[in-house]
Amino acid sequence: MATIYEVAKLAGVSPATVSRVFNGAGVSVEKVAAVREASRELRFTPSRAARTLRKQSAEVIALIIPDIENPYFTELARGVEDVAQSAGYSVVLCNTDSDLEKETTYLQIALSENMAGVILAPASDKSDLDDILTAGRPVVTVDRQTDYDTDRVIMDNFRAGKAATENLVRTGFRRIACITGPQDVETAYERADGWRAILRQRLPDLDPDELLRYSTFRVDGGREAMEDLLALPEPPDSVVASNNLLGVGAIQVLTEHGLTPPAFGVSVVGSLPFTTLSPSAVTVVRLPARHMGVTAATQLLERIAGDHQPARTVVLPSSLESATAARTS
Amino acid sequence: MATIYEVAKLAGVSPATVSRVFNGAGVSVEKVAAVREASRELRFTPSRAARTLRKQSAEVIALIIPDIENPYFTELARGVEDVAQSAGYSVVLCNTDSDLEKETTYLQIALSENMAGVILAPASDKSDLDDILTAGRPVVTVDRQTDYDTDRVIMDNFRAGKAATENLVRTGFRRIACITGPQDVETAYERADGWRAILRQRLPDLDPDELLRYSTFRVDGGREAMEDLLALPEPPDSVVASNNLLGVGAIQVLTEHGLTPPAFGVSVVGSLPFTTLSPSAVTVVRLPARHMGVTAATQLLERIAGDHQPARTVVLPSSLESATAARTS
DNA sequence: CTGAAAGCGCTAACAA
DNA sequence: TTGTTAGCGCTTTCAG
């Protein structure tokens, strides 16, 4: 690769002038033209490594997520990417597999690469942000929170859980189970709390503990929990799945048992990815994944630009998508 | 962040020695201990930016894909990631939206960041690899090919298309349509060629041109094409979808028309992501996405390590997953 | 085994 | 507006 010095020599200017041309400072038109010409000729691309070292900051933001194969997070990533891209930042996508150790490694890398900031969907509430925060790098958490005082973008999980459940009650279901994620993940227990609240209010005779299953936020987790629920002495007539993959797993098992929705009520928090079901068969409480990514990226860029106001928490609303499912059995 | 000099001072050694400790060169045990101790105390992490500048190469590989929201590519990404990770390399995931301009931008960034190598799923066969290849950076293409002389990992699309079609014939379907991707994308036309070959051989009375639809490799593309096929004077009784998202779109439309598989034959090249259908309803020719990622990453790492043998092309096999679907209508 | 010192390519004072 | 120059933090000869 050609360097700034070679370009300078060819263009008959100083290296500083070449740098200025590429950074939008005041340079006379003739010299700009000469530099551009020389750059083209030498196929010059400025070295980002040198720039990063010198500026102590790279135009890169890290997006750290627990599961790259979950469409919810790829949708979020799209939001982040679009905003970052148009501001001239690259996004490095890091996959933690919900593993705290991997998460810590990636945070170290972000630091050691001098990345401008981090958007983190925490693997759990025990994330260690000490180093990155004391280094003064901005961090925005998404989807879940931590105990640190950072910007966050979350959604109203409790309401989402309530809405999903309420709709099943309204449709006429009377024995509503719930499958949710790990007990120590806030999106999991908050959505379950929403379900519990509606049960208490509308179906007080039900025993929530009997009908609730904690699981992983994965398809096989949904499958296992659904099997378990169907094996109950008095099985449920409907289920709230607290995320997209759990919903897929539950519906798979139901289908295998001949209990196709909407005969068996299914309500999913988060949209069903690539569903082949007819849209009215399942209640979906849509989560604003893309929007969450856009919001987080925007906030992060503001911080990078030097915004120092106190940490903000943005709560995004969810929306009931198909409230019209009618009971057909 | 602490630097190597501060660590050196605290440990009572020279900066060079600190560097050696972190790079596995010969240093006496006492000094190693002193350096480690000092590093811990100062929370020292070596600056990758400086290292990259000095070594003219970063331990980062770029993975450039056309659609991050397609589970096929995220699965591929997982394969790449796992191999890279265990070799101490980070992966930067770049999303081109099948846009050649974005692809070129990302290739420039890879160069300008001194990344060690690139794994590219080309947006089309017109990708421009001139710069990156003349710079001597190794490139492995996956999924699709280019005209450049690089390593590649592809699969046998023609056979996959044949297998998907053949299975429908065997099941008893007699009017088999095909929905495939853009006409200039090799995975699209090769799979369609497989379909055409079986038609010619087993159902020579059919007019392939009437039953073939080129589209985008996206859900809405599958929907449109399927609608179009169903509106034919003499509609098909079955369809081959040449990728996962097309399959989803086609099945959605079929379901809306009351033509649920397996009554209407559906064969998909690439697995149905997060399907809620019963497994026997649809024929799936599974593509080795993860394996492809693993293979590509392994090859790339070999090149990075200095392997200079002539370019290799690895062709991965696909596998028929549910050949047992019986016609039930 | 260890240290001194040069230099990777760029940016930003400072001077002119 | 332009050039000179120091230095970002690391690795790597070269001496010792």
TrEMBL record, chains A, B:
UniProt GO molecular function: DNA-binding transcription factor activity; transcription cis-regulatory region binding
InterPro entries in alphabetical order: HTH_LacI, Lambda_DNA-bd_dom_sf, Peripla_BP/Lac1_sug-bd_dom, Peripla_BP_I
Coiled coil: none
Domain HTH lacI-type as annotated: residue spans: 2-55
Pfam families xrefs: LacI, Peripla_BP_1
SMART domains tied to this protein: HTH_LACI (SM00354)
Alphabetized UniProt keyword annotations: DNA-binding, Repressor, Transcription, Transcription regulation
SUPFAM superfamilies given in the database record: lambda repressor-like DNA-binding domains, Periplasmic binding protein-like I
Keyword Cell division (UniProt): no
Protein name: Transcriptional regulator, LacI family
Organism whose genome encodes this protein: Sanguibacter gelidistatuariae
